[in-house]
Amino acid sequence: MEETISLQDLFKTLKKNLGIIALTTILAITIAGAVSFLFLTPIYENSTQILVNQEQTEAAQLTNQNIQTDLQLINTYSVIIKSPAILDQVIEQMNLDMSAEALTSKITVNTAENSQVVNVVVRDEDPAQAVEIANTTAEVFENDVRELMNVDNVSILSPAVLKENPSPVEPNPILNMAIAAVVGLMLGVGIAFLREYLDTSMKTEQDIEDILGVPLLGVISPIKEKAELETTTSNRRKAAELNG
């Protein structure tokens, strides 16, 4: 006989295991919050902007051509910014106790589409150091690119500035706790249905029919407790004596 589960049965299972579902959800949120606030190191982000722009030394009709040339050079500049030739000088000037590879992992270089502005984004555990790394990297690049590429079309547009009360970009406790709540809820629901699946006891007449595959012919009434039977018998005797 094919076993089917109705929507009502599903709701009954969830209602019966509501405590477990709530417990796993609260536990997951608590763990995520504790890890986010107590164990994960805050990471701060800051950035500086570099403008790539040719000097106006040619006729105005060549301006568009110069812009296209600058846009093509930006990808090259992005590679140069994160190269050891630049980062080794940054490490030396700042007396950083890290390798160029480690510093590279802290720096991200990106540009907006068809933009002549290069963003140098730095992430670090120390917000002040993130600002200093971003500005020093931009300054070293601005000075060295003139010799490396024999160009004079790079200038710092907007240096990084340390805010009064910087907020970390990582971790995000609210997001982590929200994700944990969803995971905990799913885990609780999974445990609820697993318990129901592993529970092979027969609780109703319908369970007997479903498991044995035969129709139910009769039901034995519940047997009363001994004390209840004695009380009933005693009451009957008293009533018989009064009537007699």
TrEMBL record:
Q: How does it sit in the membrane?
A: Multi-pass membrane protein
First-listed, main subcellular location of the protein, grouped into a coarse class: membrane
Q: What does UniProt give as GO cellular component?
A: plasma membrane
- Which residue numbers delimit the Polysaccharide chain length determinant N-terminal domain? 3-93
Query: Which keywords belong to this entry?
Result: Cell membrane, Membrane, Transmembrane, Transmembrane helix
Gene Ontology terms, MF aspect: protein tyrosine kinase activity
**Chain ranges of the Tyrosine-protein kinase G-rich domain:** 144-196
Q: Which domain of life is it from?
A: Bacteria
**Which residues are listed as membrane-spanning?**
20-44, 174-194
Name the InterPro entries for this protein. Bact_polysacc_biosynth/exp, GNVR, LPS_length_determ_N
Pfam short name (any one) = Wzz
Task: List the subcellular locations.
Answer: Cell membrane
Q: Which PANTHER family match?
A: FERRIC ENTEROBACTIN TRANSPORT PROTEIN FEPE, TYROSINE-PROTEIN KINASE
Assigned protein family = Belongs to the CpsC/CapA family.
Q: What is this protein called?
A: Capsular biosynthesis protein
